Write a sequence for this structure.
């Protein structure tokens, strides 16, 4: 069900359907179209000849032949004429029509290239925005695993265009572990890495030392097991309990929440059925985003799963940027995380 942004060659994707950015003849061309036809073999062109072409913004389906995907969905993106000629609407329609066709054919997974972002000249950053928004909208209503495949140098071009705001925020807020005691000017390259590891080790051992290792009796007295039982009865609200409470308070259904979090139904039901479920940090944050929690509430939800947000982690700083700006679109956040090579939110 969630949206994954990945770097790959779409012809290698093992999904039920891959989408081809074709032209109106459906008879092949360059770019991703050429790559798909080469990988699928000549039978694909033979089937395409029977389809009678395709209008811009629409989609048609064939089988995948020698591709690892069962189907190819051919869609025709708009040619960019400056943005004032209905390009966006047509591009949205390509994504929507392709996903509807995939659904009609029982596909549980689909992979898209950035339609129109090559020969058809749609500015890559805007093409990505349209892709993420259109797929995100569809996923709010439907269950499907959707991959947005970023190819070759596109990733670099898009990275350069990523909002200057985010870059500035990261520059201002991202602080590596404070190395001042270890003479930062003298620490660089490998030496710096070693120093960092030493500091991390030191911090780790501080956190791990006496409580965890000490005998239970030393801390809780003689009747330790009885006291422990008592303590167990008085545990604070768990991550799962806080999550479910917040869902109720926000008036959301479970499905609305996990879809907004880019989390799949199976994972959500695991959480629902286990009061002590411990999610990964990206999953926990994804729920904070779906619930539109402010920074303080996000921190307290994370704490329940044993996590915190720090200024020493790029991932955390990017998440904090979006929360501080009250930008709660998980797909938009994932776009930014993707370009900074960080784990994505959700499943
Ligand atoms: N895997 C994933 N993405 C790819 C791959 C690949 N193997 N190859 C290219 N891309 P384009 P359009 C990316 O030009 O703009 C054809 O000739 C590429 O980097 O393939 O919709 C058709 O026949 C870019 O981001 O498609 C049409 O005439 C994106 O796919 C025309 O080009 C789309 O670039 C369609 O132009």
């Amino acid at each position: 069900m969630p949206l994954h942004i990945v770097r790959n060659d779409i012809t290698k994707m093992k999904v039920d359907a891959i989408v081809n950015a074709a032209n109106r003849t459906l008879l092949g061309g360059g770019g991703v179209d050429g790559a798909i036809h080469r990988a699928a073999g000549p039978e694909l062109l033979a089937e395409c000849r029977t389809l009678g072409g395709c209008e811009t913004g629409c989609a048609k389906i064939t089988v995948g032949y020698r591709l690892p995907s069962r189907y190819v969905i051919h869609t025709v993106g708009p040619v960019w004429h400056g943005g004032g000629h209905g390009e966006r609407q047509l591009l949205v329609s390509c994504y929507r029509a392709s996903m509807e066709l995939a659904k009609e054919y029982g596909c549980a997974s689909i992979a898209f290239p950035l339609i129109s972002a090559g020969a058809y000249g749609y500015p890559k950053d805007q093409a990505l925005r349209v892709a993420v928004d259109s797929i995100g909208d569809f996923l709010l209503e439907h269950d499907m695993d959707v991959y947005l495949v970023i190819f070759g140098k596109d990733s670099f071009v898009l990275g350069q265009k990523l909002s200057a705001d985010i870059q500035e925020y990261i520059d201002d807020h991202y602080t590596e572990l404070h190395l001042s005691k270890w003479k930062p000017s003298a620490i660089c390259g490998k030496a710096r890495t070693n120093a960092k590891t030493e500091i991390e080790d030191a911090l780790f051992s501080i956190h791990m030392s006496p409580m965890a290792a000490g005998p239970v009796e030393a801390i809780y007295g003689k009747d330790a097991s009885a006291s422990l039982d008592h303590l167990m009865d008085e545990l604070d609200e768990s991550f799962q309990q806080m999550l479910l409470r917040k869902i109720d308070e926000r008036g959301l259904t479970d499905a609305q929440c996990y879809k907004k979090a880019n989390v799949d139904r199976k994972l959500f039901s695991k959480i629902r059925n286990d009061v002590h479920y411990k999610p990964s940090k990206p999953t926990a944050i994804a729920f904070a985003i779906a619930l539109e929690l402010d920074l303080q509430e996000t921190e307290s939800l994370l704490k329940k799963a044993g996590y915190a947000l720090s200024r020493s982690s790029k991932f955390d700083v990017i998440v904090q940027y979006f929360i501080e700006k009250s930008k709660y679109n998980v797909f938009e956040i994932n776009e930014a995380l993707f370009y900074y090579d960080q784990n994505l939110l959700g499943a």
